[in-house]
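Progress narrative, work stream C.
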Amino acid sequence: MGAIFPILFIAGIILFIVLSIIFNEEARVKRKLKKLSYKRIADYFDNEMGKVVGRVDASSSNLRAPISTRNCVGFHVVVEQKKSSGKSSSWHTIIDQKVFRDFTIIDRGQKALIRTDNLKIAIDKDREYDSGFMNDATPQLVDFLKKHGVDSEGLFGFNKSLRYKEGIIERDEPVAVYGQVKWLNRNGFDDKEAILEVHSTEKESVYLSDDRSTVSNRE
C-alpha cells in the first residue's frame, strides 16, 4: 500500500504539468485560431464573430520592444528567475509584460483595424537572453528590470540567474485575429475607404497569434 503513494504523487505532478500546458492562455489561443476557418475581410458583415488573417500594415509600427529595441505594434516579455530549494531548482516567472497598440492588417487590399484593449495572445518569443554567474546583464536588461522594481544582482553583489524571452508583432508579419467585427466608413460593398474593425465583446476577448499553424489555412 505504501508503494502506491509515490506513484500517485508522481502521476499527480505529471498530470499537473500536462494540464498546465493544455490550458495555459497561449495554448488556448492557438487551439482556437487553428480550428477556425479563414474568411476574407471583404466577406464579413457587421457583428459577426470570426477570424481574419493578414499582414501588419507597415504604418502601424509605433512601439519599440524594451529589450531588443525593435519597432513593433506590440510585445510580450517574460523574465524568469532560477531559484534553488535543497538539491532541486526551478524557474519562476517574476515579470510578465504585454503591451499592444491598435494596429491594422491588410488582406487582398482590404484593411482590418485590430483593437487591443482586451487581448489574448500567443506570439513567438524569438529573442532569448540570460544573465547569471560570470554573465552580467546588458544595460537594456538592467534598465528593463529596474522599471519593474527588480535588481539583476542578489546578496553580496552576485548576479541572479535570470532568463529573458521577448516576442513582438512587427510590420509585414502575417497574423491571425479573432473577434467581433464592425465596418467603419463603409457606404457600399465596394467602398475603398472601408475598414473592418475587429474588437472584443463583454464575453469574448480578441485573440491574436503569429504562429504559423494559425495563419496557414489562409486561401
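Work stream C, second folded protein:
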Amino acid sequence: MENAALIVVDVQRDFCEGGALAAADTLSLLAPLKQCIEAARQANAVIVYTKDWHPQNHSSFQPNGGRWPVHCVTGTFGAELMPPLQAGTDEIVVHKGVQADGAGYSGFELTGLENCLRKANVDRVAVGGIATEYCVLATAMDGLQSGFDTVVLTDLIRAVQPSETAKVLEELKKAGAKMSTSAEWLKSL
C-alpha cells in the first residue's frame, strides 16, 4: 500500500481572521481541518505543515516594494500555526519563503519537502489550507510536478478572493490534480 501525506498549507495566524493578510472565512476551516488531521494521524498518514517564514526584508512586503502587507515574519506571533492546530513532534514542518527574494508560495520550493516525503515512502499527497489561489495552488502544482498523486481537499481550502476558487480548481484539474472532500479522501487511507 502506498503511503499518503496530508499537507496543511499555511494555516497561520497572519492568514486567518484578524491577521495581517487574512484569507476569507478561515475560522470555519479550523475545526474540520483539525478533525481531518486527527483522522489522518490515526490512519498513519504523514502530516506536513507548511509555514511562511519570512525575513523582515522579504521582497513581497509592501515596505520593501512588494504587493503584500508584512506577514509571517520568522519567529513572530503571526507566523505561528493558528490554534487549535499544533504540529506533533514526529510531524514535518517546513518553512518557506525564508530567502529575502522570491515568493516562496510552494511548500516544495527550497524546503526539502520532496526528499522528506520520498524517505517516508509517500506516493500520494492531499493538500488543504490557505490560500487557495496562491500557496495551495503552488504546493499542489509542485506536488504534481514531483510525481505525487495529488488531491486537493476542496472543503479544507480558503481563498483570499473566494471568487477565484473555481478557476484555480479547474487549473489544478487540467494539470492532473484530483478533487475530493476530506471525508472521501480519508476513506482512501
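The chain has one domain: 3-187. No further action is required on this item.
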